[in-house]
């Protein structure tokens, strides 16, 4: 069990390192790479390797779809704030607060309509 956890951590970290290294050469290609659902794919692979049921993996995929939506505005807000010369960390904090609020709204909508 300890070795499996170590492998998961190393593979997951390698994805992040790869994206940041690609970004040194091309922000275009790193954006494409990071826009791939690599974290979700890795999570679903780890879930399968650990023997989780297909329904649990399906539920994860469905939930990921719904909760990706409220995270998308961050990728429009952050560049605007940075281009307006806001401090990076303040901009990131604003984006996190907005995203958290949108997650809450999405959660409420999913519950209200019986989707989640």
Description:
The chain is mainly alpha-helical. Helices cover 82% and strands 0% of the residues. The protein has helices spanning 2-25, 27-35, 38-49, 54-68, 74-83, 88-112. α1 (2-25) packs antiparallel against α2 and α3 runs antiparallel to α4.
Give the SSE layout:
Elements: H1 2-25, H2 27-35, H3 38-49, H4 54-68, H5 74-83, H6 88-112
The share of residues in helices is over 70%
- Overall mean pLDDT: 91
Strand fraction: under 5%
In DSSP terms (H or I, runs of 4 or more residues), the helix count works out at: 6
How far apart the termini lie comes to 31 Å
Summed up:
This protein has helices spanning 2-25, 27-35, 38-49, 54-68, 74-83, 88-112. With 116 residues, the protein is mostly helical.
Features:
116 residues, 82% helix, mainly alpha
């Amino acid at each position: 069990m300890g070795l499996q956890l170590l492998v998961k951590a190393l593979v997951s970290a390698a994805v992040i390192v790869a994206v940041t290294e690609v970004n040194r050469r091309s922000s275009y290609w790193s954006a494409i790479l990071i826009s791939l659902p690599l974290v979700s794919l890795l999570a679903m692979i780890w879930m399968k390797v650990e023997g989780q049921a297909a329904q649990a993996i399906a539920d994860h995929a469905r939930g990921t779809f719904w909760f990706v939506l409220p995270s998308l505005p961050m990728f429009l807000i952050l560049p605007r704030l940075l281009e307006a010369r806001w401090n990076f960390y303040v901009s990131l904090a604003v984006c996190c607060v907005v995203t958290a609020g949108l997650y809450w709204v999405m959660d409420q909508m999913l519950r209200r309509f019986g989707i989640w």
